[in-house]
Design brief:
heterodimer, A: alpha+beta, 6 strands, B: alpha/beta, 10 strands
Chain lengths: 87, 669
């Protein structure tokens, strides 16, 4: 809706394409109400600082660390999360 | 008094529950749903308390039926005191649920669990400051070691007895938001919507069929209405709700909620749910920074373990080794148990022959019943028990989450998530625990698809049929061929089911908890509950079914049954005598083999059946109805209707596959 990445002039990196162990900040979450709710529930919000810890092969999920907690995020969801590299 | 335990998944809530309520705890379903909760009774310093362990939930804005049921329970005000179990090592995230519970205006005790884990992560929490900020008592616990548990319940009892000195402090939102909440609450109050616990709020789980009856008491009485929590909470929930769902509410509520959502969006430039969630999130972070300090974490060996177990290559190697080891152990233990128990039952049956005349009706029925009991105790239990123990250990240690992560990409090809790997792998051992394991999946759709695919997997009993018939008479390559064909059928079935009933969730989103030592008590209790369920439901069916078969044999009704099944056997090109064996196969799959030899009157099956017939028979037995015990567990997990649909589909599938095999084999033999 409002947070669609189409509104950004320079499309940010999707979380799925981020390298491991690089510190990232969540810029926006595209997708509807349900996607936001699910990610928020797992403690993932816009503005959070996260990094990718593990990456499964064959287009599998990522494990990201967010304030000490670890969450596995599937490819489709990870592609909906836009991040920027901060370190 | 009644205490409700609420917490996010993996917060150690059940460990706390199990520490005080014991083996006599009951699992019950929320009215009209398949969602289970556990309740038990505990004695704390002479006080008897009723404990309700609600399914874990991340927030009061539910994502699955289990969470919806928990919310409805809390909204109905059914607990005198709510104990919020919080994972102290994940304090910042866990506090979001705590803040929501404060908005609920329930009597709340916060139980700061896993303090040892928090210390390891370098998190130092100022507990009095946290209690002060929240306005509710906070107790530190390490539930796995039993520390602080009594104190938690003592605090809850004290809170129940007398008015608390401080009141819960719900944090305020931005003034514009507060004004909107106030306005919406007043509109709700004027409309009299407070009287309906389950109708004032839209269901969010995408499974509306299960949600209407989700209030545990079933109906909302005037007495309940008086205890309903404040309108502010309802207004807040509506404000965050999915606009699409809000539109489905009655027109007055929908209108008020829509206009409130518009107001917030207009003032703050973002959808109302984003505004509220962001505000709560930042309140949590602020609170966390005020009451906790994060120091350098201690080096953690578990980090090294995950580097191997979640590695893109080694992860799969160890996954294979761990499950091979697990299966090996289960089979070895099971075989040992089976031999001993079967010998005991053989002795009993021989003894029975002395008590009753071997040609009497009584003997036939009693022998049948004994054989049924033997089937349950000697064939199923020895394998089921180690399976359930092993599964609980892997689950409690945190390994199952890793399996889900590793297998997600593969399972997506079948229209499932990584977590569904467990039931499908378990299917190679025994379909009963495999079907039970589908419980770990959150949506009914996933549970059904996983259960369907899991029963398609040839269990160990069907393996004996495949090996002893096709493997023995036609060679190992033919047996392997059946397994390969089976995998292809599973992949195809997964794809077809996904076409019929598409996936709901867009992708995997799962917490990966740190490894920890499985608590013996939790493992024992979990195994005991699952086992008790099997014995209570499947055992009577096995006993009665076997007694009836004894009766059939006694009166020589085999020919009637074979005649009744002759259209099927003729269609598949099988001898009419195998008809009865198929009926036996529904009771216990490996019986098909024994009965086949008995029906043909020879142990050399190949002398009376052609190679093609042996293959067709084996294929049919592999794919047709799962055994009775499996069907019973399936009814428990996915309901009668879906089980009936699955059974019909499996029967048709078996006929189609066998017919196709008949057509193709025609050219070979």
């Amino acid at each position: 809706m409002v947070m669609s990445d189409k509104m950004e002039s320079d499309p940010p990196l999707s979380l799925y394409r981020a390298k491991r162990h690089v510190t990232l900040r969540v810029l926006s979450i595209s997708g509807g109400w349900g996607v936001r709710r699910n990610l928020n529930q797992m403690g993932l919000h816009v503005g959070d600082v996260v990094f990718v810890v593990h990456r499964a092969p064959f287009g599998g999920p990522l494990v990201i660390e967010n304030r000490g907690g670890r969450v596995a995020v599937g490819r489709q969801l990870a592609e909906k999360i836009q991040v920027e590299v901060i370190l | 008094m009644k205490i409700a335990l609420v917490g996010q998944p993996n917060s150690g809530k059940s460990t706390l529950f199990n520490a005080v309520a014991g083996y006599r705890s009951l699992t019950s379903n929320f009215a009209g749903t398949t969602v289970e909760y556990t309740r038990g009774r505990a004695r704390v310093n002479g006080d008897v308390i009723d404990l309700v362990d609600l399914p874990g939930l991340y927030s009061l804005h539910p994502a699955n039926p289990a969470e919806t049921c928990s919310r409805e329970f809390l909204l109905a005000g059914d607990g005198d005191v709510v104990v919020n179990v919080v994972d102290a090592s994940q304090l910042a995230r866990s506090l979001e649920l705590t803040l929501e519970l404060l908005e609920l205006e329930a009597r709340l005790v916060v139980c700061l669990n896993m303090m040892d884990e928090a210390v390891r992560k370098g998190i130092v929490i100022d507990v009095p400051a946290l209690a002060d900020a929240l306005g509710v008592p906070v107790v530190e616990t390490i539930a796995t070691r039993g520390q602080g548990i009594l104190e938690t319940f003592r605090m809850a009892i004290r809170l129940h007895r007398k008015r608390p000195s401080s009141s819960p402090r719900a944090f305020p939102y931005a003034p514009e938001v507060e004004a909107t909440i106030q306005g919406l609450a007043e509109a709700l109050g004027a409309g009299g919507h407070a009287g309906h616990a389950s109708h004032g709020l839209p269901p969010e789980a995408g499974e509306t069929d299960q949600l209407d009856a989700a209030t545990p008491s079933g109906e909302t009485t005037a007495k309940d209405a008086a205890r309903l929590p404040g309108l502010r909470f309802r207004a807040l929930q509506l404000l965050q709700s999915d606009p699409q769902r809000v539109a489905q509410l009655d027109s007055a509520t929908a209108k008020a909620a829509e206009s409130a959502q518009r107001q917030v969006a207009m003032h703050l430039g973002q959808p109302a749910d984003v505004v509220i969630s962001a505000a709560r999130h930042s309140a949590c972070l602020n609170l966390f920074e005020r009451v906790a300090q994060v120091r350098r974490p201690r080096p953690d060996w578990r980090e090294q373990v995950d580097r191997v177990l979640m590695h893109p290559v080694w992860g799969y190697v160890f996954l294979t080794l761990i499950f091979l080891g697990f299966f090996r152990l289960v089979f070895d233990v099971g075989k040992l148990g089976e031999a001993h128990i079967l010998a005991a039952f053989d002795g009993l049956i021989a003894h029975l022959g002395h008590l009753l005349a071997p040609s009497s009706l009584g003997f036939a029925v009693a022998k049948g019943a004994l054989l049924g009991t033997a089937g349950a105790f000697a064939i199923v239990l020895p394998y089921l028990l180690p399976f359930l123990v092993g599964l609980s250990v892997l689950e409690d240690a945190g390994y199952l989450a890793r399996v889900g992560y590793l297998m997600d990409a593969v399972m997506h090809r079948l229209g499932l998530h990584g977590t569904a790997t467990i039931p499908i792998l378990l299917g190679y051992g025994c379909s009963v625990p495999a079907v039970m394991a589908t419980r770990i999946l959150t949506s009914r759709r996933d549970r059904f698809v996983a259960a369907f695919l899991a029963v398609l997997v040839p269990c160990s009993a069907r393996m004996t049929v495949i090996m002893a018939l096709v493997g023995f008479y036609l060679g190992a390559y033919w047996a392997l061929g059946i397994y390969v064909l089976n995998l292809a059928v599973i992949a195809l079935a997964g794809n077809i089911l996904t076409k019929i009933w598409p996936e709901i969730a867009p992708g995997m989103l799962m917490e990966v908890p740190p490894y920890h030592h499985p608590a013996l008590r939790v493992v024992v209790l979990k195994t005991w509950w699952r086992l008790r369920e099997f014995v209570a439901v499947a055992l009577p069916l096995l006993v009665v079914g076997s007694a009836v078969l004894g009766l059939i044999e006694f009166y020589g009704w085999q020919s009637v049954i074979n005649a009744a099944l002759s259209p099927l056997t003729a269609l598949l090109g099988l001898p009419a005598a195998v008809g009865l064996t198929l009926i036996f196969g529904v009771l216990r799959k490996e019986l098909s083999l024994l009965m086949l030899m008995q029906a043909l009157g020879t142990t050399d099956v190949h002398s009376l059946m052609t190679s093609a017939q042996i293959i067709i028979f084996t294929l049919f037995v592999t794919f047709y109805l799962p055994c009775l015990a499996t069907l019973v567990s399936m009814v428990r997990e996915v309901g009668r209707k879906l089980t009936a649909a699955a059974a019909t589909a499996l029967l048709l599938l078996a006929i189609v596959i066998s017919l196709a095999a008949r057509g193709i084999l025609h050219f070979f033999y």
